[in-house]
Amino acid sequence: MQVLIEESKKLRRASACIRDGGTIHVKLPRHWPRHLKHSVTQELVERLQKKDAKERALLEKAARQETITLPDNEALTAFVQAINAETFQVPLGKVQIGTAKYNHLAQVNLKTKTMTVSRYCLNQAPKEALRYLIVHELAHYFESGHGPRFWALVAKHVPDYRLQSRIMKAFHHQAVIQEDASDNLLEAPAGKAGYASKPKRPVLAPTLPPRPTPARLKTPHKTPQNNKNPKDKTGLLPGFVKQLLLWSEGFKG
Q1: What are the pLDDT digits (tens) for 99-148?
Q2: CA distance 198 to 203
Q3: For residue 118, which of 88, 76, 65 has the smallest C-alpha distance?
Q4: Which conformational region is residue 9 in: left (phi greater than 0), alpha (psi within -120 to 50 degrees), or beta?
Q5: How are the residues of the chain apportioned to helix, strand and coil, as percentages rounded to the nearest 5?
Q6: What are the structural domain ranges in the chain?
Q7: Selection from 124, 129, 128 nearest residue 167 by Cα
Q8: What does CATH list as the number for 67-183?
Q9: Separation of first and last alpha carbons in the chain
Q10: Dihedral of the CA atoms 27, 32, 35, 37 (nearest 10)?
C-alpha cells in the first residue's frame, strides 16, 4: 500500500486511516522528533495492514451468505418494514439512504423517527449482516445507548450479532475503499491501455514583492527653549528652581 504522510502544527497525537483507494494516510504532529515520527508511522502502517487483511479474510468467509442490493429508498423502506414487522414493531418514520463514509453505517433520529442507512451498505451486501444493522437501529427506539439492555434486545433477534457486526463494518469499509479506487482511475485513451493523464498542477497566486518596511524616524531631542533675553538663563533650570529664584528676587525688591 502507498503511504501518504501529512504533518501539522495543530496535531498533538498521530492518526492513520485507509482512503483514496487503498492509500494509507498518516497524520503526525510537526514538532515530534524524526525518530519518533518514523517509529509511530511504521507501527500505524503495520496495524492498518493487519486490519485490512483481517477484513478481507472475514469477507471471504462471509461470501457464503446470501447477498442483497437495495438501490433506492423504496426498496430500503420495504426491507426495513419487513424486519420491523417480525421483530420490534416500532412506529417507523422515514427511511432514507445516506452517504456516510467513515462515521456511521446507519443512524436513527428518535425525534423524527427517521432512519438513515449508508449507501455503502446496500450494494451486494451480506443479507444477514445488513439485517443485523437494521435490528441494531430498531433497538434504539427502546434504548438510546449501548448498555447491557440494548445488546440484550439485539441478541434476542440476532444471536450472533458480534460476528454480523464485524462483517458489516468490514463490508462497509471495503466498499468505501473500492469506490475511492474506481474514482481515482481516469479513463484511458483508445490504444493506450493503462495510461492515465497527469493531474493538473494547482494554480498558485502570483507572488508579490515584499513591501519595504518604513525606516523609523528619529525624533530630535527636545532642548529647552531659551528666553528672549540671552542673559536670562532661568529657562535652562528646572521649574521649581526657577520659581524659587523668581520668588527670592521679588522678596529682595
Answers
A1: 888 778 999 999 999 999 999 999 999 999 999 999 999 999 999 999 99
A2: 15
A3: 76
A4: alpha
A5: 45, 15, 40
A6: 3-64, 67-183
A7: 129
A8: 3.30.2010.10
A9: 106
A10: -10
The closest alpha carbon to 153, from 102, 88, 96, belongs to 88
Which among 114, 117, 122, 118 is positioned nearest to 101, based on CA atoms?
A: 118
CA distances 159 to 37, 154, 156, Å, are 43, 8, 6
Q: How far apart are CA 75 and CA 86, in angstroms?
A: 17
CB 197 within 8 A of CB 186: yes
Tell me the pTM. Answer: 0.64
**CB neighbour list of residue 59: distance below 8 Å, 6 or more residues apart:** 167, 170, 171, 174
- The CB density around residue 20, as the number of other CB atoms within 10 Å, is 14
Q: How far is CA 8 from CA 3, 27, 135, 176, in A?
A: 17, 7, 41, 26
The span from the CA of 5 to the CA of 37, in Å, is: 10
At 24, list the grid cell: 494509507
d(C-alpha 72, C-alpha 59), whole Å? 24
Provide the b/e sequence for 150-161 (b: ≥16 CB within 10 Å): beebbeebbeeb
Consecutive H or E run containing 29:
strand 23-29
Residue corresponding to grid cell 529664584: 245
Write the pLDDT tens digit of every residue in 28-67.
999 999 999 899 999 998 988 888 888 888 888 888 889 9
